[in-house]
Amino acid sequence: MRLYEFEGKGLLLKYGIATPRSQLYSSDEPIPYEPVVVKAQTLSGGRGKEGLIAVTSRESAQQAAEELLKRTHHFEYIDRVLLEEKIEVKHEFYVAITYDTDTRSAVVAICLHGGVDINAHADAVKRFPVYPTDNEIAEIVRKAGFRDHHAEWESFLRSAINCFFSEDCTLLEINPVARTHDGKLIALDAMIELEDEASFRHQARKYPARQAGFGRAPTEREERVKEINAQDFRGTIKYLELDGDIGFLAAGGGGSITCMDALTSVHGRPSNFTEFSGNPSDEKVYELTKVILSKPKLCGLWIVGAIANFTVMDTTMSGVIRALGETKPAYPIVVRRSGPHEKEGIALLQKAKEELGLDMIIYGAEMPMTKSAIIIKQKADDYRRQHGHTN
Amino acid sequence: MAILIDESTRILVQGITGKEGSRAAKVMLEYGSNVVAGVTPGKGGWSIEGIPVYNSVKEALTKHPEINATIIIVPPAFAKSAALEAIEAAIPLINILTEGMPVQDSAHIVHEAAKHRVHIVGPSSIGILSPGKCRLGVIGGEQEIIERIYTPGSIGVISKSGGMTNETAWVVRQAGLGHSTVVGIGGDIICGTTFTDLLERFERDPQTKGVVMFGELGGTYEDQVAHMLKKKKFTKPLAVFIAGRFAESMPHGIAFGHAGAIIEGSRGLPSSKIHALAEAGALVAGRHDELGELIKGAINGTVEN
Fold it and tell me: What distance lies between CA B175 and its chain's CA centroid?
């Protein structure tokens, strides 16, 4: 879960990292600082360049805040604005902690030149492995190249590392860390990502639900799938709406991205990305299939998955068959599924095909999974041509 | 020969009394693997599928000193302590099947394992299989599936995706080849065993004539392979598929499938991995099912590697 700046700064403060005095904007409370930094609260970065941070006088702050509340940023609605005291900065630094696949550990990344142009200094970022205990902080401070205030930096990094591990962060980025004229280090921003898998260690946490981060507002179908997923704990389903016309129903994490690659590599255009895994109930697969079939102007449906280990094919296909029975699509369907009870599963699909009069090709393991992408692409092209749909 | 496991592997199952753990014990026994003991704290004295259960790894090892591999199949909150128990007991091969283990815990146990010179495969591993010799974990699933897909042979298989392990081994089989050892390394950010760790072993294994690997978007484990090839540390034919090219046209930061599969900035892009691997001499499949013919051509000497 990604935290908003004000939530992240709340966490930093808890671990002894100084942040500017601040409060969330509310139209009926007086503006507390002069001058004041007015900052839109968003989950994605790049606010400075988009004009979502303003420094104003006390008189102009309310208007600035109200203007920000009308804006969006990467399709996020801005519903909170933070008011902050203005800090006189002598120098800006960059500090981030995250996990690194080369060292197979957490690493702290430090750059002596922080701020909005950090990307221009990417080559000057130094990285050091860090662990929950036994870090050689003095050594890191020396190697990072800080010229002075070593004691302050040691304390700052110790607090940041402590926060990162104690809170099970996967990202803790402070850009910039400001050094003031009297030598204090202050976090002017905070980008923190908490790991959902570790939430069992943090039962007391209460952050409200986040907006969906698809780089646009979630669609009705995406909202619907989220609801379906939340109603039933068995298995996980994901759905991302796209603008093609081939319905995509795939099982498994690795399998679904491999199939998306196969379909797009033959220039097939999927109408959605989907993945279901962890043995979802028939009901859940039925509801998901209905959402996929509800997209208008589909020219094909591809039902696909890698050879399953334990998922019994005849029972998992029953949810799909029920949804097909209600919708009776006229467009072509290509199925490639395999796993335990493959013969029984194929027989069920064959029966549904005959009873419902579907234009359906059914494959088991004999057809390599990704090769069936070519077949659905060709069938969908034929259907589109015959029915005068535009691609 | 094979790598990691063979006929001499003697297996402990940590979490054997759980639903997943007992199923793993059952399918390993069905395949003929030597499962000798199980552990679940507080359930010592039980028996699962005829296998004795102990309260601790230490106790199991006292009774069964021949144990040389363990699988961990416990809820994510207990995976770290289970792994530390196995590391302290110096079991040389620790295969973690648990999914959803916090990355902090994975980083910690990988660090500890390196200190104690034991080997972790996983977390989120589907298991390890040396066909005809030994199955560790649930790789291959039901007996009807494992018999259909896997057969002893000359190709090593490494996969980040548990679900794609069968499919990757299957395209090799459809090309008329068999498998030396098949390893699911899991798709987490921190992997106990990476592609390069295994390629080192496959390089030394006389049974293995070539390797097929399934990689993904995110992280740098695939890039490390390109580096290894350039340094000529792996010299046998290598066919690779990297999943996730379509995600490059999607908004960044969305996790597709696995925890480690997040593109952050320019790091972890499938296209850059593909480019690096092809340049280093790997055979890169454009579509997954091409892997079989690619590796077949390479080991028959019909494709330049």
Answer: 22
